[in-house]
Design brief:
single chain, about 130 residues, mainly alpha
Amino acid sequence: MNPESGVDGPAESPPQGLPAAIGDFTSSVTRVCRAFAGLFGFEAREGGWHVLQLALLAVAVLFAIAFAYLFLLLGVAFAVVGSLGGGWTGVLLALFIFHVLLAVGCLLVLRSCIQRPFFPGLRRILRQEFEQRS
């Protein structure tokens, strides 16, 4: 009877009780967190450029709107002054119209970018997973 061979001796049963259940639960949570971290890394590589592009377009829209408002205010101010005989009013109103058109163009591009899904890889993986489980 050699205890090292495991043939003649009784096999050890896994530990039972609350400490073992907590250890199993912790191990499962760790595996799930690692899986989510890997999926997040995959999605960040895949969708990072798209999210950056949307953020830059949103900043461009806000920038153009702010300048359009500034030029509107300056244009109105110079219109009042120009009613007495000045030439800057047309220039400022043209800059205002340019920035409004720029903001509208950026909004249209932003709208078309938002309609694309953010994480197509995740959708594909989840769809395959649901199909396998169904």
